[in-house]
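protien #1 (seq + structre)
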Amino acid sequence: MGSGHSHEITATGEHRKRLIMVLVITGAVLIVEVIGGLIAGSLALLADAGHMLTDSTGLILALIAASLATRAATLKRTFGLQRAEVLAALGNALLLVAVGVWVLIQAVDRLRNPVEIDSRLMLVIAVVGALANLTGLLVLRPAQAKSLNMRGAYLEVLGDLLGSLAVIAAAVLILITGWTPFDAVASLVIVVVIIPRAWLLLREVVDVLLEATPHGVDLAEVREHIKGVRGVVDVHDLHAWTITSGVPVLSAHVIVDHACINEGRSGEVLDRLGECLGGHFDVSHCTFQLEPVGHQEHEAAHHA
């Protein structure tokens, strides 16, 4: 028996236009930074461009995943392809790690073997990049709390902004002092920004793939709310997990008293349970198995 089986548009799908807008901005700045980095001889600009390449790739993956996630469910894939968004976030995080490692290796080499840098051109391009990243942040900010992919995109653009600020600082210092290794130092700052963000995103993705309890859902509290419904005696086999961002689900075996069954109030109990979970814990897809007292003795005790 179940409650709340409607399949809604995923959080990323709702904000697809924002992703496209930021993708256009990021792609344009990526091209400018690659050309400028090669001409100016700046590793920091190339590092920021590499970071933006992963951003662009991640945004493309998110858009593809958002499109796949809107496909209707089938008998073989009963939740459709909604989890494609999570896989896209995983690929994005791995790309961030790869870029971070590459920049680290190049920055260490630049510290050992400094090169000539056109700091004026470096400064101009970094300012353009910072303004573009700030625009991207403003576009993504309203949606970043609703989806792993939107949050990942937001954090990437935020990291790009911090990276651009580091490049600006390095360019100014090179202009003042003439010491070009500041460019490599700025590249290392970008690495410091990239790696922790990649780790946080990976951790969230792993939680979803391992079907950990969604953030903000306290199963002990959920259990007490379920037991507070009239006619409910106890609850077991209680599970909550996330299909994709914005789609938490819950299932439970609910023991009801004999009066509930004899008086035909099972439907009423299901309605109250659905209202309880949807109202207090924002879990709209719930599946409940109603059982009479004593039925649990016939089940294997594998779950909480």
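ok now protien #2
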Amino acid sequence: MNKRRAYWFSQIFGWLFYATFMILGVYVVSSNFHLSMSLPIVVEAAFFLTITHIFRLLSKKWDWLQLPAARLMPKVLASIFLMAIPVYFIRVLVSYFAGIYTASLLSPANIGGNVIGNFIVLFIWTSLYYAYHYFERYNLSLKYEAAMNRMELARLKSQMNPHFIFNALNSIRALVDEDPDRSKRAINHLSNILRSSLSADRLELITLGEEIETVRDYLAMETIRFEERLQTSIDISPSTSAILIPPLMLQTLVENGIKHGISKLKRGGQLSINTYLDMEELVVEVRNTGHYSEKQKNGIGYGIKNTEQRLNIIYGNKASFEIRNENKNTVLTLLRLPTDIKLTKNESISN
């Protein structure tokens, strides 16, 4: 059912229910009920339908739905009051032509009580009407935000993957003339990484275990390049292997540690990866030989900036990320992620 049909269905059956309820009320309290007494109520319900529809059209024409609550409420309350008065006099007029008019219908108490009753009925109608549109706009804003997040994640991935491939190809190029056998092994490792990368492009999250396999290929390729200048160690807690994380995120942190730390040192250095659970969080620690300064922050490149942006989009303020000097010779990259993500590997973050 489209919105137009849903509106008219609600209008017609809503006011029919109102008329039925009011007629039953008259039937219960009246000792001498006859069908002519229901006519003013039916006409009143029809007038309610007509006047609320006109109110809806004018509300849309004057863009009241876009107004903040502080400006909207006075306009709505004044409109309800203006609508409540003629509804009662329409009922009095119909009563006159139906032959059931009495002078008490125009007494101040009767007029005041019925206008207040009409005001309450119209207030309920307008409250439901604006509440529906509020939630509709809220849902649209959520869908828009989710769509923007998907577009932003796609943009970040398109920046990150070419950046990684460029660095990897440079590593292989340095080996082609020097040691063809090692360059072949490096190409095999790169092939594994690219296969993982192509699979990761279809997913927003993968298991830490899958990400570690990609990291092992990357480190194997870089070890061929740096030889004894690069020493690595990986200590993964078994309880963390199945936890979901953004694809290529850990690989980006490892790449950053080698590129901005170890590769700048004549003697090279060590890189270690540790993961464990701390309460309800996954903790990932990447340590590399080197020294980090705030002056380096602007020169880190897309990888780390994208990591921060992706974390913000996917986890909001539930994740934390920092790079700091653990001591004078070691840089610590610390990542903390929540473990309560409910997605499966085949689901999108926007579902």
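The CA atoms of residues 105 and 122 lie 21 Å apart.
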